Automatic annotation (TrEMBL):
Pfam families: Metallophos. It comes from the Bacteria. Residues 114-353 form the Calcineurin-like phosphoesterase domain. SUPFAM superfamilies: Metallo-dependent phosphatases. This is Metallophosphoesterase. The lineage of its organism: Bacteria, Pseudomonadati, Bacteroidota, Flavobacteriia, Flavobacteriales.
């Protein structure tokens, strides 16, 4: 342990204030360009831009960061499209027209002839673009060509990756285009979307914190991210129209899962979404949670966007137990009862990693959170296709294999 600390370092940070309570770089800082060498105690953490980012529509302005790390600001003109710059050589940029009529999404839809679902992209633009291109959802210029098909983005498109903003604008853009062709893009809120609305920045690339501080004129890290995705921003307003659960045909799409508490308390899908939306941007606490029904939906492991009981591995079970939370996997009997209550045939979840797109609970749960490839056409970026009531696993090479269920 001591040798590891000497080599790799150790840090204790205060993310609200953006300071190191204690920092030791480790000797590997000598060969790591992004790691300052030495000790720091109660010192500010330096953040910086790191390549093209944005645009951020905040209040009446548009902010963009160039590939040379220069921040620009222009007055917002809603009649003109925004340009989104990427690091993808096949699609260096694309344009997005702002939707002047953002409105709350429905949570029940008919099943289309074709539906594709993908989850947990986590700021990986190349993977998402490659996957959509290979499966004929978009053309090379990122135009919708999926006609009246539906695309479900099943949560956690934020955090960890370095092109979160580009990913969000691509989905926003496709949502607008899909409607013109009779199609639909569904964006289901995952725990990382919710966390960014709260201002929780634990998994943010620091360039986003730097952008938020500069744009929102704040020093507090959590406050800056919360403001960047507040109702004063276009992406913040857009995210607030989204649901945590949707039912398409007889299939439920939810990021984390549904559990015995949702069954025992007889929630319906509309109430799940209504409760969650009340707390978008407002960190749940004993002081502001209004009642027990709200607490189940927005607090911790019982929330539909946090629950892991439908895919509970040993690592997460032990981690939760160490935090004083002892949970067990959902039983087949409870899954059957949940589906009966919601008048559904299957539940599609992300959130909890699996080796491949797969089914569980006698085919009644489909798990689609896989470790996507970091580059285009890797064969590792995968999703689900439902076509004429048949189920397939698909990837960013265009492969299509029947999913046993």
């Amino acid at each position: 342990m001591a040798i590891t600390t000497i080599i790799l370092g150790y840090q204790d940070t205060d993310s609200e204030k953006g300071i190191y309570n204690f920092y030791w770089s480790g000797i590997n800082a000598f060969w790591k360009n992004d790691k300052p060498f030495g000790f720091k105690i109660k010192q500010p953490i330096e953040t910086k831009f790191n390549g093209a980012d944005g645009p951020y529509v905040y209040k009446d302005s548009v902010f963009s960061i160039s590939k040379n790390n220069a921040l620009s600001k222009i007055k917002l003109d809603t009649s003109k499209p925004l340009t989104v710059v990427t690091n993808n050589t096949s699609l260096p940029s694309f344009t997005v027209s702002l939707n002047k009529n953002l409105s709350q999404e429905n949570d029940h839809y008919d099943m289309p002839k074709k539906l594709i679902a993908i989850s947990d992209i986590e700021g990986n633009f190349d993977a998402l673009y490659s996957f959509l291109l290979a499966n004929h959802v978009i053309d090379k210029q990122a135009n919708w060509i999926f006609n009246d098909g539906h695309l479900v983005c099943n949560g956690d498109f934020f955090d960890r990756g370095s092109e979160v903003t580009q990913v969000l604008w691509l989905i926003y853009h496709l949502e607008n285009q899909a409607l013109l062709h009779g199609g639909k893009v569904h964006f289901i809120m995952g725990n990382h979307e919710i966390m960014n609305l709260y201002g929780h920045i634990k998994y943010n690339d620091q360039k986003y914190i730097h952008a938020a501080k500069q744009i929102c004129k704040t020093k507090n890290w959590n406050t800056s991210i919360k403001q960047l995705y507040s109702q004063d921003s276009e992406l913040g307003r857009w995210l607030r129209t989204k649901n945590i659960v949707e039912k398409i045909g007889t299939i439920i799409f939810v990021h984390g899962g549904l559990n015995k508490y949702h069954l025992e308390n007889a929630y319906d899908i509309n109430e799940l979404n209504t409760i969650a939306r009340k707390y978008y941007g407002k960190v749940p606490s004993k002081a502001n949670i209004k009642n027990d029904r709200d607490e189940i939906i927005v607090s911790g492991i019982n929330s539909p966007f946090w629950d892991r009981r439908l895919n509970l591995d040993t690592k997460h079970k032990l981690a939760l137990k160490a935090s004083g939370i002892d949970i067990n996997p959902t039983t087949q009997e409870t899954v059957n009862a949940i589906l009966k209550h919601f008048k559904a045939s299957k539940i599609v979840i992300g959130h909890s990693l699996v080796n491949d797109i797969q089914t569980d609970y006698n085919g009644k749960v489909i798990k689609i959170d896989v470790k996507h490839g970091l580059e285009m056409n890797s064969g590792k970026t995968k999703g689900l296709l439902i076509e004429n009531n048949n189920f397939y696993k698909i990837n960013d090479l265009g492969d299509k294999l029947s999913l046993k269920h």
